[in-house]
């Protein structure tokens, strides 16, 4: 677990954590930090912490104890109490609230969510409409979780940007079929399509979310 915290610890706290220094000591590594370098490190800490959140994973004592789940650069065990996307990513808004609390408690610095979203199988109807309700529900539930973290838990969350505003080739699977955007791009995995940009239902929904500062979630 400490390994996951290491880089943020250094950037947010301004010093190398004791567990990492002990690890270096065991491995015979001397990083030779001068007092001046320590001073620069201490004075150069970040003003806020940004992070991405899509899903959560579970851990198990035995590798055969549970069904595995999948995610972008993140593997774990499937939580039987959570829904999952069509690509097997666990949908866990409470996990976002939990993450916000853990990060804020650890660093006491403002937080910003720079990526949050879900890949959906959006269908272009004959009339040009795209009813991406699963996309809307995912974002709505995660925005609710952010609101609870701010208003109930006291987390200083200063910004939020979903992933992403327009469909693109998925970084995790290399396909257009996995769509994240508020705007549908008429290209398919086989290269067909005219590249037209079409608003999905989520476009006007999120426009209203922004206009109302998150108060109108279209419920």
Brief description of this entry?
By secondary structure, this protein is α/β, with parallel strands linked by helices. The chain contains six helices and seven strands. It has a three-stranded parallel beta sheet with strand order 1-4-5, covered by helices on one side.
Describe the protein's architecture and organization:
The protein is globular. It has 219 residues and is α/β, with parallel strands linked by helices. It starts with a helix and ends in an 8-residue tail after the last helix. The chain is built from six helices and seven strands, in the order H-H-H-E-E-E-H-E-H-E-E-E-H. A hairpin with a 6-residue loop joins strand 2 and strand 3. It has a three-stranded parallel β-sheet with strand order 1-4-5, covered by helices on one side. A two-stranded antiparallel ribbon has the order 2-3.
């Amino acid at each position: 677990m400490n390994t996951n915290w290491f880089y943020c610890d250094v950037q947010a706290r301004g010093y190398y954590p004791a567990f990492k220094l002990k690890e270096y000591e065991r491995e015979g590594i001397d990083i030779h930090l001068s007092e001046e370098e320590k001073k620069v490190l201490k004075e150069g800490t970040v003003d806020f912490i940004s992070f991405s959140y899509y899903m959560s994973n579970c851990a198990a004592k035995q590798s055969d104890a549970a069904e595995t789940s999948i995610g972008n650069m993140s593997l774990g065990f499937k939580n039987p109490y959570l829904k999952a996307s069509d690509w097997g990513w666990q949908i866990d808004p409470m996990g976002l609230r939990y993450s916000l609390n853990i990060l804020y408690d650890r660093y006491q610095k403002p937080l910003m969510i720079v990526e949050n979203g879900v890949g959906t199988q959006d269908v272009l109807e004959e009339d040009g409409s795209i009813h991406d309700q699963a996309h809307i529900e995912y974002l709505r539930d995660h925005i609710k979780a952010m609101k609870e973290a701010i208003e109930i838990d006291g987390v200083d969350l200063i910004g939020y940007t979903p992933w992403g505003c327009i469909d693109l080739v998925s970084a995790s699977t290399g396909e257009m079929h996995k769509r994240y955007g508020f705007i549908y791009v008429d290209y398919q995995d086989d290269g067909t399509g005219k590249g037209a940009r079409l608003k999905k239902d989520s476009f006007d929904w999120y426009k209203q979310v922004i206009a109302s500062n998150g108060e109108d979630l279209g419920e």
